[in-house]
Write a structure and sequence with these properties.
The chain contains ten helices and no strands. It has 190 residues and is mainly alpha-helical. The longest helix has 21 residues.
Length: 190
């Protein structure tokens, strides 16, 4: 009879994977992840069938953390610029406050090991933001770019903004707002 799985061990494995992947990239061996969690390597595979399963679960965990930072307080009934400013500020703040998560999220987003199903599940929590961006494009308030392009531009400008905010924390607010204005000016039609 199999022993019940421990949420504590699972979380230790996820936390270790985050640290190890941030330090060594996604090619880091599972033995180091298990060691960092204080468990045997075989134990890792009791919680995650394969390394790809671990990568996908970590991706979903990071998306949930980002959702928990961005969605509360989202101004659904405000104008598009106010909604996008909220999304921008909360995303950029999360990235600056969580540099390991930001780094690993970027690696996972570029990885072909994260499945389409995981990507779709990770995006579900951001449906209001995505829908408002699509409505903005349809109404003419945003340039009629494909949503994936619009999101990629946002991530690229946000990454640059986060780098400057992290390197010059005394200017963080200035860079955050300047980054948003650059994004808005690139995407908005007004």
């Amino acid at each position: 009879m199999a022993r019940p799985k421990s949420e504590e061990k699972r979380n230790a494995l996820i936390d270790s994977a985050l640290r190890i992947f941030a330090e060594q990239g996604l090619g880091a061996p599972t033995s180091k992840i298990a060691k960092g969690a204080g468990v045997a390597e075989g134990t890792l595979f009791n919680y995650f069938e394969t390394k790809d399963d671990l990568l996908n679960q970590l991706y979903l965990e990071l998306k949930a953390q980002l959702r928990d930072a961005m969605v509360p307080g989202y101004p659904r009934n405000e104008d598009l610029k106010t909604r996008l400013r909220h999304a921008w500020h909360t995303y950029v703040s999360w990235g600056v406050e969580n540099p390991e998560q930001r780094k690993v999220m970027a690696l996972l987003m570029m990885s072909d090991r994260v499945t389409d199903a995981s990507k779709a599940a990770g995006s579900e929590a951001f449906s209001d933001i995505s829908r408002h961006m699509q409505e903005g494009a349809a109404s003419g308030a945003l340039r009629n770019h494909p949503p994936a392009f619009t999101a990629a531009i946002m991530r690229s400008l946000a990454d640059t903004t986060m780098d400057f905010m992290s390197n010059e924390p005394e200017q963080a607010e200035r860079y955050c707002e300047a980054g948003f204005e650059a994004y808005w000016n690139a995407m908005a039609t007004d």
